[in-house]
Specification:
Elements (H helix, E strand, L loop, with lengths): L1 E8 L5 H13 L4 E6 L3 H14 L4 E4 L3 H10 L3 E11 L4 H9 L4 E5 L6 H6 L2 E4 L7 H13 L10 E3 L8 E3 L6
Parallel strand pairs: 1-2, 1-5, 2-3, 4-5, 4-6
Antiparallel strand pairs: 7-8
Helix pairs in contact: 1-2, 1-6, 4-6
Bound molecules: S-adenosylmethionine.
S-adenosylmethionine binds next to strand 4 and helix 6.
């Protein structure tokens, strides 16, 4: 399993960016997203709406105590990667993360919000930077997941599918086989 933890969601400020973290996670191979901060039904519903239409089993879940959550994941044997501009260049560690995944170990990728408590830097197995410049949780997550997993091609039980085309928008409804 590869899961994402998005820290410190704020309403209304982070509504779009947190949604984009979830959609990037889904498109680039993560299994689901946990988020802390303010519980937001609207955010959960917009992600679930995309999953409902475009398929896959991506989950979105709220976690009230994010540090406790990460400590528990560690106790359960999960490998924790924290993305931060202050970390080590991710390109030096992608091979290590791939080996962890290939060994069957689960990975949780932590992305921050406005402020990340110092404990996350301590508890994480790796603090990785996608370049040491400030940019965004969405950008960092996309680049990192793309390197580790590539693009996800299969989305089970999709109701609609986009047919990529040079001009315009082609969206088809997927016919379901009846039993
Ligand atoms: C608005 S940024 C805050 C920047 C923050 N001071 C930091 O530690 O990267 C919010 C989140 O984006 C991610 N982020 C921003 N720039 C990054 C970078 N160059 N490499 C990795 N992650 C980055 C981090 O997860 C960060 O917590």
């Amino acid at each position: 399993m590869i899961e994402v933890l998005r820290l410190g969601h704020r309403i209304p400020r982070d509504e779009r960016i947190s949604t984009h973290c979830a959609l990037v996670g889904r498109a680039f191979g993560a299994d689901g997203l946990w988020y802390s901060g303010m519980k937001d039904k609207g955010f959960e519903n917009s992600v679930s709406g995309v999953v409902d239409d475009f398929g896959g089993e991506f989950f979105i879940e709220y976690v009230s105590d994010d540090l406790k959550f990460v400590k528990k994941k560690k106790e359960e044997g999960w490998f924790v990667v924290h993305l931060t501009m202050y970390g080590v260049g991710f390109e030096k560690k992608v091979g290590e993360v791939k080996k962890v995944i290939d060994s069957g170990r689960d990975v949780v990728i932590v992305v921050g919000g406005e402020k990340v408590e110092p404990e996350f830097y301590e508890i994480s197995d790796l603090n990785l930077a996608v370049g040491n410049q400030p940019h965004s949780e969405v950008g960092a997550l996309a680049v990192f997941l793309y390197e580790v997993c590539g693009l996800r091609k299969e989305f089970k039980d999709a109701k609609v599918r986009v047919v990529g085309s040079e001009r315009g928008k082609r969206v088809v409804r997927v016919e379901r086989m009846r039993d």
